[in-house]
Write a structure and sequence with these properties.
Elements: H1 2-16, E1 22-31, H2 51-65, E2 70-79, H3 84-92, E3 98-102, H4 105-114, E4 120-123, E5 140-142, H5 147-160, E6 165-171, H6 174-190, E7 193-200, H7 212-223, E8 232-236, E9 255-258, E10 263-265, H8 276-287, H9 293-312, H10 317-325, E11 352-355, E12 360-364, H11 392-395
Parallel strand pairs: 1-2, 1-3, 3-4, 4-5, 6-7, 6-8, 8-9
Antiparallel strand pairs: 10-11, 11-12
Keywords: Amino-acid transport, Signal, Transport
Pfam families: Peripla_BP_6 (PF13458)
Signal peptide: 1-21
Amino acid sequence: MMRWCVALLFALGALIRPAFAVEVTAAILRVDYPTLLPVSRLDLRPDDLGFAGGILATEDNQTTGRFMGQTYALETAASPPETALATFEALQSKGIRFFAVQARMSELLAIADAAAPDTVIFNTLAPDTALRSEDCRGNILHVVPSRKMKTDAVAQFLIWKKWPKWALIHGSHPEDRALADSYRASAAKFGARITDELEFTDTGGARRTDTGHVLVQRQLPLFTQPLDGADIIVTADETDVFATYLPYHTWSPALIVGSAGLRPLSWHPALEAWGATQFQNRFEKLTNRYMRAEDYNAWLALRVLGEAVTRTGATDPAAIRAYALSDRFELAAFKGQKLTFRPWNGQLRQPILLADGRITLSVSPQEGFLHQRSLLDTMGLDQPESACAAFTQQEN
């Protein structure tokens, strides 16, 4: 009798055991650019930025994977921009075909163009609209929101609040001007009007000296005096030169949005809705710090991979990519609704958090903005606006 029971248990185990083990290895490649220290020491960059989110995602994938015969592994690498391509090629030579890449547009395109035909790249940093349009690549899936998604998110909120008249201050660097262009496009899209514009020129001076606040307190009111009467000042300062100083330093009382004040974010460490508290706690237990947007973007990338592997049972990059872009894919990501990809340019649809330094104040898309396909498509490039042709063949 005992022998029969043992045999039955083995038979049942064989029935529930996966037919074969699935092993999935991904890599996070972070390109570290030379930058100035942030204005606030509270914003100092942690050494594991991005990597920590990938580690948490790998743990999450393993939790599901162990019941389905799936094993997940992660490699991480940091590189200066000069050697980023060589670092990518070294990882790819190990047979890795799934990459979460934290790089700016130029390095990201170089990596995508050097990738093997079956490699899938998740963009976790570059916000450039061109990457979702004329400069798109079919092997890149964008989990980071585009600039246009973020500026549209701000514009919707300001229009919902009935604040359609904006003053725009932008920095002097190319990224700042690109962000300013996006705010102009968002204003036109939703019916706002930019009444005044100023450019803040970066002179390269110290931003964190003992007398920094004294100079700011004298200079910024005079700089913003031409905007006297503006109720909303929209700031475009991707390089973190001036916007942080603007609140309370304008000539006239004014609300600040954009790169300071109310900011559009893919993630905020104070978010508690939609099960995010438990998610935040797990990350903080793992890292002893708060989760940043770069961590969340890396987590998203590897969770997209894990979800696709779980649902398809496949590890083939072409199958994973096809499933992610299909209408069957959706990902729960602690944002109140399931996330999906735009099949015409590989952008992940997602709500945008609007937050100040302490709390999440709102989430876009806002009430009243409608779309025939998805309310999330009211933010960013819609299909008729995108010049991306790299996804057309796969979509058809």
